[in-house]
Amino acid sequence: MGIKGIYKELGPGKRISLSKLAADSLESANRPYRIAIDFAIWHFQTQAAQGRGDGATTAAAKHLIRLFGFPTHDAPGEGEAECALLQRHGIVDAVLSEDVDTIMFGCTKTLRNWSSEGKTSTAPTHVSLYDVEDMALGDLGLDREGMVLVALMSGGDYLPDGVPGCGVKVACEAAKAGFGKSVCRLKVSDKDGIQAWRSSLRHELQTNEKGYFRTKHKALTIPEDFPNIEVLRYYTHPIVSSESSIEAIRQTMEQKHVFHLTALREFTRENFDWDYRIGAVKFVRVLGQAMLVRDLANSQIAAQHVKRISGRRTHFSTDGTPELRLAFIPEEVVPIDLAKEVDETVNPGRTGLALNSDDEFDTPEGVPTINAPKLFDISKPDLAWVLEGLVKNSASDVFQEWQLKEQAKAVRRSPTKTKKKAGITKALKGSDMPRGSLDKYVTATKAALASNQGSSKALEPSSSLHKSLARPKATPSITLARSPSPTQPVVNQETAAVGQGESSSRGPGPSPKKKLFRARPSGSGFFEEVELDEEERNAELNTKLSRKGAAVRWSDVSIIDLTAADK
């Protein structure tokens, strides 16, 4: 239905949340957002998608709409043309339809593709908005007159074949060239004008003289009976309500219609199998949030249903429009009489032989059933996200109370500046720790400090205790290499690095003798400890290094020769 392939030329439209449209309408017009729907097409598409055949009858569907309190209107002719008429006169704000015929009938705001937008949710939240003014469809030649020409050339509901061999792209190029506006202004009696228009279109398609098309279309032939004047009049002058009845329709649409709660409960029992008490609980749970929003929009008395406000958010499902999380009691919002509902009695049957005792099939008392679903309690508070603007207007007292609580929380969460104590400054410029913060963890006594200082002064430089405690001067590292012959002396780099003048001016220090651990010739133990001066130590080292497999160790370095075993 509609014009095949036209959406590729129009584009995807603007994706927008229905909640945002409703919030903008509440703010600007102080009323809910009104949408006109061609029920015949919507009902047909719903049944085709579900694959249930005929399903519910049209009469039952209309009855359900009236039970919800939605206004209905019977169109005298084409439903989409009537919806476009209501939108042009401001009775409704937009038309919801999967076809673009609404644009062809003069609708300036069309909604389609009502579906989910998030990846984690399947609930429909967004629609594609086709705004004729914002999208500048007139500049593209795809306004009302242009869409009529596209339907005539490429095929539409009234003339599916169109011009043989003409696609939607060529038809859109012709509409952009202005042939749509000129054809809609033709009169039925103006035969010469129709012939001149046909010749002009045929000439441009063949020659592309004015560059309206991307290329010449010599193979495209315009029939002599094109355009079909009767079909053209279906598009330009559809059968709709008269201008005199528009005001009566407006008053009917703006009236507050009654919501038939009890009748709706019986409708769901008969058509949806929501029977017994469990069906009634489902009825309350499903309608709870919608009834709360409806009551807030229609009556100030509904503010008493709002028990508290527990949060605020900006979510993608509303395009960032602020929402408040309201707590409400479902049985108060959907006041049906559960006393009239009976519990379902289930008689379980058995298949097969009962080989065991009947007592073994009974569930012990007090033992919970595994994986048993938790029943929804309609007497306990439930939560719902509602537009902040609606709550602010309809439940102002609860909203102001929540604002005061939020302001008090913000004050408690804000950091407080403490006054500086006298005599306390920060230890470092970039540190938050004041000086002396660690004093409570450390105890210092002046008496012990004085005693230690006195004992240090009592030591004389020449005493042996001072020599043993004095820290030796750092000496360069000693590099030792194996001598190539027993007669080659080992070079002491420490002696070579220090001059005579420096050694003569050196103050008192540790003994020049070094400890040497050498192998015992006999007796217990492996090494014996001796003290040698520098010359004796070098001579001992040369002697040990000249022997294969010898081991020697002194206090500075240890050398073990393991090459004797390899030779």
Based on the model shown, name its key terms:
single chain; 567 residues; alpha+beta
Write up what this structure looks like:
It holds the Pfam family GEN1_C. One of its GO terms (molecular function) is crossover junction DNA endonuclease activity. InterPro entries: 5-3_exonuclease_C_sf, GEN1_C, PIN-like_dom_sf, XPG-I_dom, XPG/Rad2, Yen1_H3TH. This is XPG-I domain-containing protein. The protein is of the alpha+beta class and 567 residues long. The chain has three domains: 6-254, no CATH class; 261-342 and 377-410, no CATH class; 484-492 and 512-567, no CATH class. It is built from 22 helices and twelve strands. The protein has a five-stranded mixed sheet. The chain has a four-stranded antiparallel sheet with strand order 10-9-11-12, covered by helices on one side. The longest helix has 23 residues, at 276-298. It is extended. Mean pLDDT is 78; it is low at 353-358, 448-472 and 474-507.
